[in-house]
Amino acid sequence: MFVNCVTYKLRVNSMVTLKQLAKELNVSISTVSKALNNSEEIGEETVKRVKELAELYNYKPNKVALSLKQNKTKTIGVIIPDILNHFLAKVLFGIEREATNHGYNIITCISNESLEKEKESLQLLANGSVDGFILCVAQETQMKNEVDHFKNTIKKGLPIVMFDRVAHDVLCDKVIVDDFESTYNATKSLLDEGRKHIAFISNIDDLSVGKLRERGYAKAILENQDLQVLSLRMGRYDDHQKKIHDFFKENKGIDAVVAADSASGVIAINTAISFGFKVPKDISVIGFSSKSVSNHSIPRLTTIRQHAKDIGANAAQLLINRLQNNLGDDDVKTKIVKTSLIRSGSTL
Predict the structure, then answer these.
(1) 142 CB neighbour count, 10 Å cutoff
(2) Which of 152, 172, 225, 292 is deepest in the core (most CB within 10 A)?
């Protein structure tokens, strides 16, 4: 009866501590801690008694105290430029799933492509909230080529793993896809179809990945002396539908398109159809895209698939490995995730 009363008071009036559990079981605090963590040093009967009492009192470890003691939060800060971007959302899913598998939590911040917001997010979370960062560099950061905030964060002992858009001047782990090679191969596949007037369309020209994709396309075109590079670069706030419509109107001989982003590929198909082209008989279209986005056109867009979840998982693995093994600058890695060309109805 007395025990029941004590149990009730502890549950209602205070958070149960390891010390209280140890006192009631007449064992040391260390024994209770080891039993809760399934240490082989503690006998099965003791482990059972400790866990039953902990469950009865609804004991929860004090994560703040634990992080102060271990100097670790078991939390990863993730900074992405745009939560509405389907690719970035899938990368985030991959990061969260892998982090959870290793006992880590994540805190996510959105930079909204702003350098200042990116800096604020790093500063906010670097104040003891996280053990390290996974991030995709904001558009404004790449345009202004500012990287000191990344370097300063690393100097504080907080490692960074960058994915997709990366700052090459920052010494840190990175996860990228074969942007140059993938557009080179995609363009070559269109040449193999017999296409002679292949255009490149992009609304991410300000980003490192956009530049790499255009270079891959250009290399494939320039290897054929009879062909000409034909590019449309659009700004973030341009009317993309109008720009692509005008581009088709000015270049009526286009018989294929390589799109650096998902939206441009879908718009290119719809625009071609509006001009009376049959896809893929008259014109073929390939774009960087996910499966769900490719469904937004008829016929379906042939896509360069980036495997976003794998990118996220690889980024989390690199950071957790660095945190758990205290790796130095000599161990910095760049992981390249291979893309896949998924053929669908927009190519022959």
Answers:
(1) 22
(2) 172
CA 224 vs. chain centroid, Å, equals 36
Amino acid type, 152 = N
> 287 and 304 in contact (C-beta within 8 Å)?
yes
Cα–Cα distance for residue pair 219/215, rounded to 1 Å: 6
Q: Measured in whole angstroms, how far is the alpha carbon of residue 217 from the centre of its chain?
A: 25
Residues 163/174, Cβ–Cβ less than 8 Å: yes
Please name the residues in contact with 56: beta carbons below 8 A apart, sequence gap of 6 or more: 7
Tell me the CA distances in angstroms from 153 to 126, 133, 150, 168, 319, one per residue in order.
Answer: 7, 9, 5, 16, 14
**Angle, in degrees to the nearest 10, between helices 179-192 and 208-222:** 40
Tens of pLDDT along 290-326? 777 788 899 999 999 999 999 999 999 999 999 999 8
Closest to 51 measured CA to CA, from 40, 59, 41: 59
DSSP-based three-state secondary structure for 64: helix
Question: What is the dihedral angle through the alpha carbons of 281, 284, 285, 286, rounded to the nearest 10 degrees?
Answer: 130
Structure tokens at 274: 């509006």
Query: In the prediction, which pLDDT does 59 show?
Result: 82
Residue 205: name the closest of 237, 236, 246 by CA: 236
In contact, 161 and 195? CB cutoff 8 Å:
no
End-to-end CA distance of the chain: 80
pLDDT, one tens digit per residue, over 95-153 is: 999 999 999 999 999 999 999 999 999 999 998 899 999 999 999 999 999 999 999 99
- Report the alpha-carbon distance of residue 165 to residue 291 in Å, rounded: 21
Bridge partners of 285? 257
Element (DSSP H or E) covering residue 76: strand 75-80
C-beta of residue 310 within 8 angstroms of C-beta of residue 94: yes
Q: Two tokens at 39? A: 């240490």
Model pTM score? 0.82
